[in-house]
Amino acid sequence: MIVVLAVGLAAMAACLAFQAMASVLAIRYFVHTRKQPPSGRRWLSVFLQFTALMSVLMLGNVVQVAFWAWLYGLLGAFQDFETAVYFSGVTFTSLGYGDVLIEGRVRLLAPLQAANGLMMYGITTALFFAIVQQALTKWAAARD
Asked: What's the pTM value of the predicted model, to 2 decimals?
C-alpha cells in the first residue's frame, strides 16, 4: 500500500511539472502576443489569443491524463491503452462513471488521480481567468 501511494504521489509531482510547463508556455505566448500592435479586428485577435491560451493549458491536462493512463498500463491495471486513457480521463475530471473499475492495490491510485485532476484544473482555470481579467482591464483602460 505504501509503495502504491508513493507511486501516486510521484505521479502527482510529475503532473504538477507538466502543468507548470504548460502554464509557462501559455503565459509566454500571451505576453508575446500582448506586445504585438493591435490589428484592425481586435476582437478576432483577442479571441484567437484566448483560444491558443486555452488550447495550451488543456494540452497540459491531456498530457497528464495520458501519463496516468501510461502508469496504469505499466502497473497492469488495464489490458489496453484505450481503456486506460478512458478511465484516466474520467477519473482526472472527477466524472467517475464507474463503468470501468480497477481491482487490487492499484485502485488506490484513482483517488489520488482524482484529487490531482481537481487541483490541475483549478490551476488551469485560475490562470485562464487571470489572463482574461488582465486583458479585459487593459481593453477597458484603452477605451477610456
From this structure: 0.84
* pLDDT, tens digit (0-9, with 9 covering 90-100), for 14-46: 999 989 998 888 888 878 877 766 556 677 877
Number of domains forming the structure of the chain: 1
| Residue 100 CB coordination number (10 Å) | 14
Furthest C-alpha separation in the chain:
62
Q: What cell numbers appear for 51 in the block?
A: 483560444
d(CA 107, CA 111): 8
Contact 19, 60 (CB under 8 A): yes
The verdict on residue 55 lying in a domain is yes
Residue 144, in any domain of the structure? no
What residues contact 101, with CB distance under 8 A and at least 6 apart? Answer: 107
